[in-house]
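Quick check before the chapter quiz. The format below is the same one you will see on the exam, so make sure you can read both the input and the output lines.
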Amino acid sequence: MGCMELASALALYAYGRELRQLGEPRSGEELVEELCGCIRPHQNRSNLKNRTAELVEQTQRVFEKASVPGIRSEAEKRELAESWLDLAVSLAKVPIKYEADILKQQQKQEQAALQQEMG
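Here is the expected output.
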């Protein structure tokens, strides 16, 4: 999961870079707060197995936007910044979902062990 966290951090850095170029610099703490504010655990329910293909596709789209040659308008710059933030959020959700799944599995095992002891 460390790779997903690193990739999320790099996407968040790129988001911060785009904001800086738009004249809206943010501190690292502000960027992290914004990232955390975008993560909604109750909406983080899709299967981890399906996420890989989705993340690859999303990453490719962001890289395509970022690699377009020429000068970008403010609107294009803002759209690219938002794409980086969306990617950072998507990548950050993977380890969160993984940890939640492990916790849920442990709770089920503990509950089953308690029921076995009582029954």
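If your answer matched, good. The chain has four helices and no strands.
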